[in-house]
UniProtKB/TrEMBL annotation:
Designated name of the protein: N5-carboxyaminoimidazole ribonucleotide mutase
Native organism taxonomy: Bacteria, Pseudomonadati, Pseudomonadota, Alphaproteobacteria, Hyphomicrobiales
Signal peptide start and end residues: none
Gene: purE
Top-level taxon: Bacteria
Keyword Lyase: yes
Task performed by this protein: Catalyzes the conversion of N5-carboxyaminoimidazole ribonucleotide (N5-CAIR) to 4-carboxy-5-aminoimidazole ribonucleotide (CAIR).
A GO BP annotation: 'de novo' IMP biosynthetic process
Keyword Protein transport: no
Species whose genome carries this gene: Methylocella silvestris (strain DSM 15510 / CIP 108128 / LMG 27833 / NCIMB 13906 / BL2)
């Protein structure tokens, strides 16, 4: 019933209505990146933030990248999390094609332990920003939290969930370390 009512509205109105359902796109250059990017997805799940996960390679599927990035805003996305490894052009190329905030996650590469990914993502020329996070799991988790913080600026319920998430994290930190001996 609710969905039927939404489909009955004009296309532009539909985009606005669906925007809050999946405001985040989690894109990655390869299936092999999912092992890292799933941590961003987990945080979004925990905070009840809708997202879509897609494999989009700047090098292997450039047309897919162009079509996604140029249409992302109209499709209702509000933040893009982009993870890639090696010559990691995905976040920067995505940012060049959309005004949406792009958070870049350097995936740990086998050859250079992700330092290649990090430098590829963080060293953007002035004028096209990418929010570069840490290499690997920490970067993916923080990209999810960063996306949440951006969205929470205009979503009081999400702001409360993010506050509770951080409170729970604080409470989970033991005062003293467990010792095996
Ligand atoms: C990059 O190349 C991907 O982001 C991935 O991190 C890396 C290796 O990709 P696969 O060879 O595992 O597909 O484009």
């Amino acid at each position: 019933m609710v969905y039927a009512a939404r489909f009955a509205t004009a296309p532009s109105r539909q985009a606005a209505l669906f925007a809050h359902l999946r405001p985040v796109a989690v894109i990655m250059g390869s299936q092999s990146d999912w092992e890292t990017m799933r941590h961003a997805a987990s945080v979004l799940d925990e905070l009840e933030i809708g997202y879509e996960a897609k494999i989009i390679s700047a090098h292997r599927t450039p047309k897919r990248l162009y079509d996604f990035a140029t249409g992302a805003k109209a499709a209702g996305f509000r933040v893009i999390i982009a993870g890639a490894g090696g010559a990691a052009h995905l976040p920067g190329m995505t940012a060049s094609l959309t005004q949406l905030p792009v958070l870049g996650v350097p995936v740990e590469s086998r050859a250079l332990k992700g330092q290649d990914s990090l430098l590829s993502i963080v060293q953007m020329p002035a004028g096209i920003p990418v929010g570069a996070l840490a290499i690997g799991r920490a970067g993916a988790v923080n990209a999810g939290l960063f996306a949440a913080a951006i969205l929470a600026l205009t979503d009081a319920a999400l702001d409360a969930r993010l506050f509770a998430w951080r409170e729970a994290q604080t409470q989970a930190v033991a005062v003293e370390p467990e010792r095996e001996d």
